[in-house]
Amino acid sequence: MRTLSAALLLLVCTTTFAGTPLPDAPHVVASGQGKVSVKPDTARVQFDFEQRAAQPLPAKQGVDAAVNRLLDSLDTYSVADDDITASSLDASEDVDYDDEGKRTSNGFVASRSVTVLLKDVDRLNAFLDNGLASGAHGIGSVAFESSREDALREEARKEAVADARAKAMEMANAFGTRLGPVYSIGSINSRFENQYGATTLDRVEVTGSRIQRGRYVQPEVEYTETVNAVFELLR
Predict the structure, then answer these.
(1) Using only C-alpha atoms, what is the Rg of the chain?
(2) Residue ranges of the chain with pLDDT lower than 70?
(3) pLDDT value at position 204?
(4) Per-residue confidence (pLDDT) for residue 101, from 0 to 100
(5) Of 40, 123, 39, 38, which Cα lies nearest the Cα of 78?
(6) Is-contact 123 197, C-beta < 8 A?
(7) Do 186 and 27 meet the contact criterion of CB atoms below 8 Å apart?
(8) What's the pLDDT score for residue 5?
(9) Distance separating the N- and C-terminal Cα atoms of the chain
């Protein structure tokens, strides 16, 4: 029989547990966890744009032109308007001060970012190249996701419920009692990770020693659900 952690399975006589109502009668509290890992089929990419100029207007115009080039090219990748988020403009003067408080202007900086959901991860390399060619000065992030997120979370939640029931039943049997019906269900917590093996990264990893074009290792995306439940015990 596997060892059961007291932090997960408790025989208690108090009236509440982490916000979960508890009965006055004998009962057991169990925490179950379910995990579902799949290969991602979408990637959410953030492109960062920046332009410097002696005056604010040319800086703004330079950034807007680059962002528009990117937006105009997205039809090639079958990106819908709902999958695009373009930030508002941030424009400011870049100023330095010396030890005596003398002010020196380095011109004006205008910046924007655009986040795009790419639904064909096989085209990720070309998509990144296209964004940089449009005028993006950097790639802020690449987050891998699954288009089946809702279904995967539901699957993980069912696993968490089954896990909680199995742990509660094992504890009840160990104490020579029988597991009764569910008295209450506590919080259900969700967690999401995209990972390469056992290492969690937020950026793509380039592989290969002689690279003609970028090759990217697609991570796994993991959806985790945790549930707390209270079961009555039958004598």
Answers:
(1) 27
(2) 1-21, 187, 194-218
(3) 34
(4) 84
(5) 123
(6) no
(7) no
(8) 38
(9) 22
Give the per-residue SS3 of 9-23.
Answer: EECCCCCEECCEECC
- Helices 124-134 and 56-73: angle between axes, nearest 10 degrees: 150
Q: Residue 24: its pLDDT value, please?
A: 79
- Which residues 6+ apart lie within 8 Å of 5 measured at CB? none
The amino acid occupying position 98 is: D
Q: Using an 8 Å Cβ cutoff, are 188 and 227 in contact?
A: yes
- Phi (first) and psi of residue 76, to 5 degrees: -60, -30
Judge contact between 67 and 114, C-beta under 8 A. yes
Placement of tokens 């995209």 in the chain: 194
Structure tokens that stand for 97 in this block: 């001060």
Q: Which helix (H) or strand (E) holds 193?
A: strand 178-196
Residues whose CB falls within 8 Å of the CB of residue 212, separated by 6 or more in sequence, listed in order: none
Q: Which amino acid is at 104?
A: T
Give 85-126 as a DSSP string. EEPPPEEEEEEEE-TT--EEEEEEEEEEEEEEEES-GGGHHH
pLDDT at position 15, please?
Answer: 38
